[in-house]
Amino acid sequence: MQVNTQNSETYQEWLLKSYIDQMSQTHTNTALSWRRLYLSRAKLKAISRTSALLSGFAMVAMVEISIDNDAPGGNGTEANGGEKASSEAGVPELLLIVFAICTTLLVSVHLLALMISTCILPNMEAISNVHSVQAVNESPHEEMRLCVEVAWVCSTGIGILLFLAEIAILSWVKFYRLSKNAAIASTAIVIPAGIMFIVFSLVFYKRLMAHKYQSHSERLRQLDDLARELHTNDDGIHIV
Amino acid sequence: MQVNTQNSETYQEWLLKSYIDQMSQTHTNTALSWRRLYLSRAKLKAISRTSALLSGFAMVAMVEISIDNDAPGGNGTEANGGEKASSEAGVPELLLIVFAICTTLLVSVHLLALMISTCILPNMEAISNVHSVQAVNESPHEEMRLCVEVAWVCSTGIGILLFLAEIAILSWVKFYRLSKNAAIASTAIVIPAGIMFIVFSLVFYKRLMAHKYQSHSERLRQLDDLARELHTNDDGIHIV
Amino acid sequence: MQVNTQNSETYQEWLLKSYIDQMSQTHTNTALSWRRLYLSRAKLKAISRTSALLSGFAMVAMVEISIDNDAPGGNGTEANGGEKASSEAGVPELLLIVFAICTTLLVSVHLLALMISTCILPNMEAISNVHSVQAVNESPHEEMRLCVEVAWVCSTGIGILLFLAEIAILSWVKFYRLSKNAAIASTAIVIPAGIMFIVFSLVFYKRLMAHKYQSHSERLRQLDDLARELHTNDDGIHIV
Amino acid sequence: MQVNTQNSETYQEWLLKSYIDQMSQTHTNTALSWRRLYLSRAKLKAISRTSALLSGFAMVAMVEISIDNDAPGGNGTEANGGEKASSEAGVPELLLIVFAICTTLLVSVHLLALMISTCILPNMEAISNVHSVQAVNESPHEEMRLCVEVAWVCSTGIGILLFLAEIAILSWVKFYRLSKNAAIASTAIVIPAGIMFIVFSLVFYKRLMAHKYQSHSERLRQLDDLARELHTNDDGIHIV
Amino acid sequence: MQVNTQNSETYQEWLLKSYIDQMSQTHTNTALSWRRLYLSRAKLKAISRTSALLSGFAMVAMVEISIDNDAPGGNGTEANGGEKASSEAGVPELLLIVFAICTTLLVSVHLLALMISTCILPNMEAISNVHSVQAVNESPHEEMRLCVEVAWVCSTGIGILLFLAEIAILSWVKFYRLSKNAAIASTAIVIPAGIMFIVFSLVFYKRLMAHKYQSHSERLRQLDDLARELHTNDDGIHIV
Amino acid sequence: MQVNTQNSETYQEWLLKSYIDQMSQTHTNTALSWRRLYLSRAKLKAISRTSALLSGFAMVAMVEISIDNDAPGGNGTEANGGEKASSEAGVPELLLIVFAICTTLLVSVHLLALMISTCILPNMEAISNVHSVQAVNESPHEEMRLCVEVAWVCSTGIGILLFLAEIAILSWVKFYRLSKNAAIASTAIVIPAGIMFIVFSLVFYKRLMAHKYQSHSERLRQLDDLARELHTNDDGIHIV
């Protein structure tokens, strides 16, 4: 690049700089958009795997444990005559209601996360396979961000806490007639575990936010340095 | 490119422009066709995974829960003498009919989606492996679009709603004799969950449509800008 | 390419054209062969996945449901004394025969498809991994085409229809003593589903054939245009 | 390549040809070795998948069906007093022996195939990951060829036939007391299926051999043509 | 690079060296960061696989074994009248409490590991897909290091030891009434196995640390050599 | 490369040769190290797959078969009064002890292999993802070699033999009361199968060693030829 006079130089430099600014701005936006696309895709994949696994376990537990609970209750009914008597002698009704609510909620929450994942993921996969950088702008992942976050919280947050609760309730249903102490011991372990889950979630969220803030501010500082450097070069010797 | 007179220039430019138009048109069509191919392929893959999972759960639930329901009923029959008496004392017939209908429908819907996926997917995979850009025109995915959409709605839409209904019916069958309140509680959770599923479907559909409309109109605007720019260049200095 | 006289030109052109013809012919044949290889491979993979899944479900259903059916029947036998009496009081023998036939047929058909897939697939995988274009000619997929089609029809066509029938029979076996209406309702859903499966198969086959015919005729038309164009160029100015 | 006199030319040509011969010979041998490596690897992978699946089914069937068969037998024993009486009244001992033999054989055969696959596969995977063409010569797949073929026949040949036999025996064990006709019907389907399996194996083997012979003879013919062509070129104009 | 005088040379060399130092420093840091990213990602993947597997087994064991333990206990209760009597006659309450604690702890520990893996993995996957070397600096894996290590120890360390303990307790629950010697034999195998696990962990940790120390000190030595070499070159002939 | 006098030539050649020697030595060592890394990685992957599968089957067999064995035994206890009486009338205690030992050993061995695989594999995966050839030197796979071999022998050698033994013991437990002949027949098949496993292991080991010896000696011969060739070139015309 041959530069003749200071004025034209400044003008050309301004052109170049504004062009670079715009380009890098566009480029940065596109790169950020791709990163968000990859993050959403990875989240949805993790959701679909975790939710399929946990809802499967919940289903199996419901079908299998109900058999067990039903069988002696049924025999008891025939021996004792009345249904209410059997359910009073066996597992109390409240426990069954809580068990039914927890299992249904657990399966529903994971199914919702699974459905969101199944709906949005193909649109992202299709964009990821296209080898054009600009294709990311036609991906609906920015509009669907809220949905992805909802699915994420459903599957990882609420879903795993409900699963922990399910285990405690399940051991109550199992051990109610044999040994209440076993059920109490099981509950005594699940409660601190649940608290640890929530603590980890908060720590994870805080660190992620702190990390994002830090990398943003660092990038800003870098841009600032770059701007100052370019400014300094304007006044002195031009090294391009 | 050396340009001598305005006339020949215009003619050559017209040639070039029309060629570029045609090329970019063809290119855009091909690119769009590939994107639709990738989208259909990703959908069919998601369908095959989800449908295999859910129909498997439904099968297991049917086989396992029927055992349970049958066992005490069978013992009761022998004790009480008649079959009708047993089914009246136990689970009412209407519930069994609804359960049979829901399970059969669920498995059929997912099997249909699975079959469509198994039929069409290999044809797309074969095209995707060929490293020729024009190969997309020989893919049958445009003709099969309706089938893919039917499989998609069967698997993700109807299939997941039926699965939710199945859970409610299943808990009715399980808890009918032990505690009707547990079954009612389970149903009370499934109904709002079902409504949330439908709401999410509509929101997803609306956003997807809005996104498609927006990206289409933006592309049109870009083409318009390009056309105007080319037009301006015709009258002034030619920068090619 | 500098051309001096019309005669030598025509001769050279003829050479070039015949060479290109031959090359493109060979190339087209090789490309078509690769595409058929990819299609067969994708089909065999889909077969092996679907067949393993469905034969697994059928196996589990047979083992599990037989337990259930056997258990009360066994108790009934001991109480009532004779075997025939038990099978008459319980599930009729004809139903059991149909159930045994359907399950055995289902598992056999899927095992046959699985075996064909396991035999042929490795030969194709080995060819696909070799990075030589001509390697496709040493792949046995053209000779094995009939086998692939047989496995395909066994797994996707007959296999899925048999699976639907299996569900209907299974619900008859399950609900026979509890509620014949539930079994009838289940059958009433399976029959239209089966018809829809056959209709989809025919639509899919027709569309695939129409698509193949169309893309073949279009390719012929293109070759025709190319030939005419080359012919025209012979007489006029040569633009190569 | 500048050629001065006929003599030196012939000598140089001879050098070149012998070099090309050697190179292509080496290259062809290496390429063939790679292809055999890929084929063995693909076979071992297919073996490990199929054997894990089928041995799993056999294990589950043995554990589950034994429960079922054992339960009423056990009750019968207590009611009737003696063990022999129970096994005579129930399933005959010969059937149990055949069932035990078939299941053990099935699991052993698939375990053997699985073990061979687990032993040899890592050595091949390690070679495949090395990006050196000559690495194939250090792969032990040529020495292990017999083992791979044994595993292949164990898993695909004997293994699937034994699995078919297992289904027939299993339905005999299940339906023996309920309905002998169902077991007979099941056997009547398994026998022609087994014959079809053997026929397919023979057809597959014959076609594969025919294909190999054909592609070998074609390659020989091509080499012959090449040799004749090179010979002709020696006498006439040299086009290199 | 032509060098004229000693002074300018020294200055330029100093510039170059400091630049190279800085570059290689940055490069080394980035490379190390990538390596740590890959290591964390591989660990989290292994965690998610192992934890899903083992927590699944624990769940199934709890549901299935409880059925078994509950069934005869239930029958015993009805026969003997009181609940305490049954649990005293059958499995002692302490064993049930230990069993409940171990199972709940096992599932909680693996769920915690699974949750950490599901939370952090998508952020790393998104970074890994971006083809920019500097992207690693925006990955939160350095901040999340402690979490990854906690998940790692939970899943591989505590998780597998608890699983071993679970097997011993499980065989106590199973064989308590049939044969206490079988349970003792089982425990006698689990204890040395547990010791071997801990020994392996320590050996593995020590070797890993020794390896890290060795490769660090070797790298330091290499840098030292490089520095000395550069120093020597400064005084003598410059070979760049 | 222009060579003037014999002496300097010799010196330069010596330099070049020693450099090439060193390079090729380093290169060969690095390549060998990578190959060992890939081999260890492939082994660990195979271990983790096989061990997860077989320990899963063993767990399921233990849980399921214990139910079956426990149930009639439990009923028998109540009928006959004493525990010892029941276990003497049913399955002898020795068999239960052997069964408990075999199952615990089987699960422990596979868990150990799984744990070693889970610990070492991530460190190798992280190295494999780094695209630097020298990175292999920082992989701990040479130090961990013994661990990998232990895991390998545990999983493939001892693990599969124990699994075979488990099947024999399992059929003894199952068929003990129904038909001792079935258990004897099952054992009669397992014993030759076990012998075949050991024979295959020895054949495999011998062939692998022979292959390694052969490829080592061949490489030595090649190096020898190369050295002699370079030596010959020193004395004659230099063709570089």
UniProtKB/TrEMBL annotation, chains A, B, C, D, E, F:
Q: Molecular function terms in GO for this entry?
A: store-operated calcium channel activity
Any single GO BP term: store-operated calcium entry
Please report the organism this UniProt entry assigns to the protein: Candidula unifasciata
Which protein family is named in the record?
A: Belongs to the Orai family.
- Keywords in UniProt for this one? Membrane, Transmembrane, Transmembrane helix
Which Gene Ontology cellular-component terms appear in the entry? Answer: membrane
Entry's localization field: Membrane
- Which chain regions cross the lipid bilayer? 46-67, 94-116, 150-170, 182-205
Pfam families recorded for this chain? Orai-1
Q: What's the protein here called? A: Calcium release-activated calcium channel protein 1
Task: Tell me yes or no: is Transmembrane among this UniProt entry's keywords.
Answer: yes
Q: How does it sit in the membrane?
A: Multi-pass membrane protein
